[in-house]
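Incident log, structure service

09:12 report received: a user says their structure output differs between two submissions of the same chain.
09:20 pulled the input from the user's history:
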Amino acid sequence: MGIGRSERSTVLSMDSTMETLLVDRDDSGVVTLTLNRPEKKNAANSVMWDELGEFFSTLKHDTEARVLVITGSGDGFCSGADLGAGGKPRHQLAAMRQIHDVAIGLHQLPQPTIAKVNGVAAGAGCNLALGCDLIVAAERARFSEIFAQRGLSVDFGGTFLLPRLVGLHKAKELAFFADVIDSAEAERLGIVNRVVPDGELDHFVGEWAARLAAGPPIALAQTKAMLNKSISPGMDEALDLEGWAQTVNFGTSDTKEAIAAFIEKRSPEFRGR
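09:34 re-ran on a clean worker, output below:
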């Protein structure tokens, strides 16, 4: 069963007021969340973080929603946090608490979640995909824990999620070098469940979502919760550590240099201060 836009109806009253997200639901209870900043490869600015937090909080209590599919508009999934964007002034630790809340909100959803990765998934965008229960990637999809290239450490739950998927040493390699890997390598490493041809992504995810929507929602929610709690430490502890580390990073000259270099399209020069 495909999930064509013509078959969907708007879900959640806040959808009409959201600037960065599109939300749809089909008759079976499959909710599709589309990150909608295609001109920025769907990079998350402060508005998107706010809207994601509100959306996950609302969806958690929506008993009619059976499955959540997350994807991106245009040719990208999510290129991470928009480091060049403005926003309301606040201490970095407060900003990290907001990202923490979004990540844990996704992690604690009772509904099964599928990341439909249609393009680049980098930084927090990569970990947004990893935070879903299942990942289906188009052949053109690319993944990167790009943080080190920006003078940052891994966040959005990546320190919890990545080693559990690929093992500790491979996780360190991906995090330290911040290399971009293609969808075939992501599948080989166990990061994604399936890789499908670009033109078949919608159909494949539609079929998986329909199968999950037809399943027993309470039993699936219980299974998900138990599997999520099967490994310690928990996601909460990992996010607390990430927030502390990222707050330190944003106070360094290296991070300021990395962001300036990214904007100026040059290689950063890190000096360890």
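09:41 both user submissions now match this output. Likely a transient worker issue. Closing.
09:42 reviewer note: The longest helix spans residues 92-107. The chain has ten helices and eleven strands.
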